[in-house]
Design brief:
The complex is a heterodimer of chains A (about 325) and B (about 500). By secondary structure, chain A is α/β, with parallel strands linked by helices. Chain A has two domains: about 170 residues, D-Maltodextrin-Binding Protein, domain 2; about 100 residues, D-Maltodextrin-Binding Protein, domain 2 (3-Layer(aba) Sandwich), CATH 3.40.190.10. Chain A has eleven helices and eleven strands. The longest helix of chain A has 19 residues. Chain B is built from 23 helices and two strands. Chain B is globular and about 75 Å long. The relative contact order of chain B is 0.17. Classes of the chains: A alpha/beta (about 325), B mainly alpha (about 500). At the A-B interface, helix 1, helix 3, strand 7, helix 7 and helix 8 of A face helix 7, helix 15, helix 19 and helix 21 of B.
């Protein structure tokens, strides 16, 4: 009896150790890899995901790694590591702890990369002083939607109502300093109105509240809201992006409606500061190749993400503008 | 009937024997992962998701459903045998399951847990099939005011867990409420009791707390060898199953628990954990053996177990009909479904009818296989108690620390588990019950969030918050449950006095 139990325990433990993932493996020569860059990695690369498994960032990074593996784009392994907490600050802190090995550590970014430092919850800033920018991959645009019972047909209706009833309209979003909030503040400023923000910490609950009419407006991403918009449970008012969404051709963009707001969450890749240009170029080219594959384009299309690849120099400039934008609008968040 | 036709369609898709194989794999893996402390259905699905990549959708679905149900049952195995709940939904199972095991009835507790889970799961699938389109809107009727009211109701169930000393129970509950408040404020972004530590920004998750409070404390206090001698006779399957008398006591609770669990599971903000709390409380209030709850009564195991499985099914309602995940595990499941090319949402049952009904059929299958494996492996599980306590404790400790690290890939979580392990040790020595603390921690965070949101929505008018129709009814119910007894006694006293005066 004891033997059976012991062997069962050993089996379970070895399974769990195997599941914890293999460690680094030595670099192997791959046929497809271009020898163009003057720097090539000699050992495994760590890709930090500062968010939980299953989230938007996590899915994107794992897709990137999958595409790289399938197409043999990199001679070494890239290992994803989830380090969530503090809205990304824990992950970025972990990245910085790998400064000695800075050529082999990457991290992915999203809105919180810019917002957390502004609200004082992060010891570093999203600038070249603290990070190197590698590549910008996609933008996650949203649709401004309302509950059908409200009777709004487009943004102009909303603005008209808001002008007559300041503070009464309720806009639900995830988090207090997220893109959901910033788009509202931008609209408030551009249209001269006052909509009240209701923060949620759970996207699922927010959608249920939006459908149930507990909040009047919300900004689901296309992936999140497609079904609801198509079935009529939510009315799409405007698309907050450059062009109309392919899946919602009848919905005008915010700019078309006359409101100059075009902000979406951007997802990019960063590294520790002070990485040499050859290394940056290697990674930038690598991710460019990923962005050009058919699988990536399918993935972006399925997730309703806007492909917006930017190599490292362009991304650095883009990030600077983003940061300035966030700073400007987050100053409006009420603080006690 | 349309329904039977659709179900037949679903089962026909399952006709392939490979599906059964995958379902079995799913259930077994789910049970093991569920049993490991700290790892629940969400982790199970996330970990085993890569295995589904290359499979045909229906095989993958069968496996995922198997994992889901297996994990819900797995959590209760360790809860009953070693007082360490494998996941939060199993915490209530420890209250009566562990005393039963100590009395030598581990098999009965495990058997009832398995059967109650399966009954709860199967009945809720039927409810899902028949009611889903009608109640899909139910989830959307609940806004912050309604959730706040529901949480208040949930908090009243703490009174049922205080055991001998209500004061100590409330002490634990208030400590739990305090811990729930740690983190960055949702509305203003102000850090509360974070002490500048980045890891505390998102607050303290209740899973490491539960593992420390229950698991580590139990190990620290239980290092002497058990005097339980399990002889071969008592390991026959017949002896291990619940008796007719047990069923007589438990069936009504299973019925009520399933209904309650399903309804609560449908609400995105509440899940299997809250369902099991409320079901246990309801069983305690309505049972004839109410005073014996906590010492090892079989319905104290049946009620939470059927409720948490019913809640898992209930959580599928908003997920499949609205595309809104009802709980953490369904969120991951939704991700898995989307990866398989299935987009849950209002048109799920019409656009992808085959997959939809195949999914429903594979849930039935999962439950059936759970019964077979659960009961078949009963004697195996019970023999775990035969292992020398010192060895068992060492293993459990290792698993707890592993589970704590696996939660967030961070030693900080391990630190939290150990910290609360120390607190749990003192709780045990001082005879302070640990369950109220975890309950208050789980509910407290949700209560605060929803109250703040409701206040914003109602422009800081609290009276408006509680006058929403659903909120008002629930709060009235909570007041009734909390003050019912004293009010009843007062009314009886008044009548008696009147009668005496009239004489």
């Amino acid at each position: 009896m004891k033997k059976i139990l012991v062997s069962l325990m050993i089996a379970v433990m070895s399974l769990s150790i195997m599941a914890c993932g293999g460690g680094g493996k030595p670099a192997k020569d791959t046929k497809g890899a271009k020898a163009g860059a003057s720097w090539t990695p000699k050992k495994d690369i760590e890709f930090v995901i500062p968010f939980g498994a299953g989230g938007g960032n996590d899915v994107m990074v794992r897709k990137i790694i999958e595409i790289i593996k399938k197409n043999n784009l990199c001679p070494v392994n890239i290992v994803p590591v989830n380090k969530k907490g503090g809205s990304g600050v824990v992950g970025y802190t972990y990245l910085k702890s790998k400064a000695k090995d800075k050529d082999y550590a990457l991290a992915s970014t999203s809105a919180s990369f810019y917002t957390q430092p502004i609200v004082g919850n992060s010891p570093f800033t999203p600038t070249e002083k603290d990070f190197s920018f590698v590549a910008h991959m996609v933008k996650d645009p949203v649709v401004i939607a309302s509950n059908p019972a409200r009777g709004f047909k487009n943004l102009k209706d909303v603005v008209a109502y808001a002008k007559k009833n300041p503070g009464k309209l309720m806009w639900g979003g995830v988090g207090t300093v997220s893109d959901d909030a910033i788009i509202m503040y931008m609209l408030n400023e551009v249209a001269g109105i006052n909509i009240t923000y209701v923060p949620y910490d759970d996207g699922g609950l927010l959608h249920a509240a939006a459908i149930g009419g507990h909040v009047d407006l919300s900004v689901p991403s296309l992936a999140e809201g497609k079904e609801l918009l198509e079935s009529g449970k939510l009315t799409a008012l405007a698309a907050c992006s450059d062009k109309r969404f392919k899946d919602l051709p009848k919905v005008p963009t915010t700019v078309e409606e006359g409101f100059k707001i075009n902000h979406s969450q951007s997802r990019g890749i960063i590294m520790n500061p002070g990485v040499k240009p050859e290394v940056l170029k290697f990674y930038s080219d690598l991710f460019k190749k990923v962005a050009e594959t058919k699988e990536w384009k399918e993935f972006a299309q399925k997730g309703a993400m806007e492909e917006a690849f930017m190599p490292y120099d362009e991304y650095a400039k883009f990030a600077k503008d983003m940061y300035a934008d966030y700073e400007k609008y987050l100053a409006k968040v009420p603080k006690k | 009937m349309d329904l039977i036709q659709n179900l037949a369609l679903g089962f026909s898709i399952l006709a392939n024997p490979m599906v059964i194989v995958y379902s079995v794999i799913g259930v077994v893996c789910g049970v093991i992962i569920g049993a490991l402390p700290g790892l629940g259905p969400s982790v199970g699905i996330a970990v085993l998701l890569p295995m589904c990549y290359g499979l045909a959708p229906i095989n993958a679905l069968a496996m995922l459903c198997g994992i889901y149900y297996g994990a819900m049952y797995g959590g209760s195995i360790t809860a009953i045998l070693i007082n360490t709940p494998g996941d939060s939904a199993a915490i209530m199972t420890t209250l009566d399951g562990y005393p039963l095991a100590r009395k030598g009835h581990a098999g009965k507790a495990l058997g009832m847990s398995c059967l109650a889970s399966v009954i709860g799961g199967t009945v809720s699938i039927v409810m899902f099939m028949t009611l889903a389109p009608i109640v899909s809107n139910f989830a959307t009727k609940f806004g912050p005011s309604e959730y706040f009211a529901l949480m208040v109701l949930g908090l009243t169930s703490i009174a049922g867990m205080t055991g001998k000393s209500p004061a100590k129970g409330f002490l634990a509950a208030f400590i739990g409420l305090f811990v729930a408040g740690i983190g960055i404020d949702l509305v203003f972004g102000t850090p509360k009791f974070v002490f500048g530590n980045v890891n505390l920004y998102s607050g303290i998750d209740f899973v490491p707390v539960a593992m420390g409070l229950f698991g580590i404390a139990e190990i620290c206090c239980n290092y002497k060898d058990n005097n339980l001698v399990i002889n071969k006779e008592s390991l026959k399957l017949k002896e291990l199953l619940p008796t007719k008398e047990d069923w007589k006591f438990s069936l009504p609770h299973i019925g009520r628990g399933t209904l309650l669990g399903f309804i609560i599971g449908m609400l995105p903000g509440a899940g299997a954990t809250i369902a099991s709390f409320l079901s246990y409380d309801m069983a305690k209030r309505t049972s004839k053996r109410s005073k014996e709850f906590g010492t090892g009564v079989i319905e104290g195991v049946a009620a939470p177990e059927c409720a948490n499985n019913a809640a898992s099914m209930g959580a599928m309602v908003p997920m499949l009909t609205l595309g809104v995940p009802g709980s953490g595990a369904t969120a991951i499941m939704m991700g898995a479904l989307m990866m398989l090319g299935i987009t849950p949402g209002p048109s799920f049952f019409t656009k992808s009818a085959e997959i939809a009904w195949g999914l429903v059929a594979s849930m039935y299958l999962g439950n059936v296989i759970l019964v077979c494996i659960g009961l078949g492996a009963l004697s195996l599980f019970v023999r775990i108690l035969n292992v020398k306590t010192t060895t068992l404790n060492a293993l459990i400790f290792a698993f707890i620390l592993m589970g704590a690290y696996a939660l967030e890939n961070s030693m900080f979580t391990v630190g939290i588990t150990l910290f609360f392990g120390v607190i749990g040790y003192f709780f045990k020595k001082l005879q302070v019950p640990a369950a109220p603390m975890v309950l208050a921690l789980v509910l407290g965070a949700i209560t605060e969030t929803n109250l703040r949101q409701a206040m914003i929505l109602e422009r800081n008018n609290f009276l408006q918050v509680i006058s929403h129709p659903i909120s008002a009814v629930i709060i009235f119910l909570a007041i009734l449950l909390a003050f019912g007894n004293p009010i009843k006694k007062l009314v009886i006293k008044c009548f008696k006095n009147k009668k005496n005066n009239e004489k």
